[in-house]
Amino acid sequence: MKQIVKVFLFILLINSFVSKAEAARARYPLGYSVDISKITAEKMQYVRSLGITHIELAGIGAMLDKNLDTLEVSAKWTRHILEVKQALKKSGIQVWSVHMPFSQILDLSLTNESKRQRVVAAHRNILKELLPLDPKIILFHPSYYLGLNEREARAAQLTKSVSELYTTVSAYKCQMVVENMLGPALRKGDVERPLLRTVEECRQLFASFPAKVGLAVDMCHIAEPEKLILAFGSRVKTVHVSNGAGDTESHYLPCDDRGKNDWNAIFAALQQVGYKGVFMHEAKFKDEKELVDCYDTLWKNYQLSLTHKKK
Length: 311
Known about the structure:
- With 311 residues, the protein is of the alpha/beta class.
- It has one domain (27-310): Alpha-Beta Barrel (TIM Barrel).
- It has nine helices and ten strands.
- It has helices at residues 2-26, 41-50, 75-91, 113-130, 151-171, 199-206, 225-232, 263-273, 289-310; strands at 30-35, 54-58, 94-99, 137-140, 175-179, 187-188, 191-192, 214-218, 236-240, 279-281.
- Helix 2 runs parallel beside helix 3, helix 4 (113-130) packs parallel to helix 5 and helix 7 packs parallel to helix 8 (263-273).
């Protein structure tokens, strides 16, 4: 009888270790998107005190002339980047990703070849300036809005740009990703939505990209983002976390019930594909503490759902 009890206790102990290991794998590092011009030592120390460990650099478009009359990055940005580096070092915050700029002019899918080449060159200049911050992920938008009936030509131009930039990004030992875009319907007025608007279009275009180019899944840009995650598996290298319904750029806080995302399904999909990245928020908030509190709630709900499944 004593032997049976020992075996039973041993099994309980093993199950406890397994549960803790599963929990450790599921609880992703926490990050959020922040405008590079607004990074200060005080802000980074504050967010680190909350448990946020990573950031995505946004607002990068300010580093370039908006009309691309010049491709050079001004010296003031070189100085600011060094200040940011010191602020990050002091706080212990790491740069997970860089959200590369985009606009109607700064579009990697432009059909005018000379203009497309200037856009690629501008991206390379920015990336070179940001290297001292040691980013892990370099994120690109596939396109801006498109004219009618030019989707195929734009897709071909994007493929060229992705291949060219992949050479640069990989040489810097960074992971290149391209983000899925909002697209509940093909047309919006007299223009077409950006490229990568559906799971199927993502599949088609990524088949033409270098195999190691990853996908950034924006959870506001598509309804049921877990389906896109499952469709791309280990090719999902980073995420943009916010709530929505795939029909507008709402970017609600994940806990905001105006969005329709199923966070238990999203967590389960991330687990299934073995996602190893940061839970990177690109959401509206008043104080960074909201991001932490919301994530804690989502995580507890997910763990509770797993407990119910086991029963």
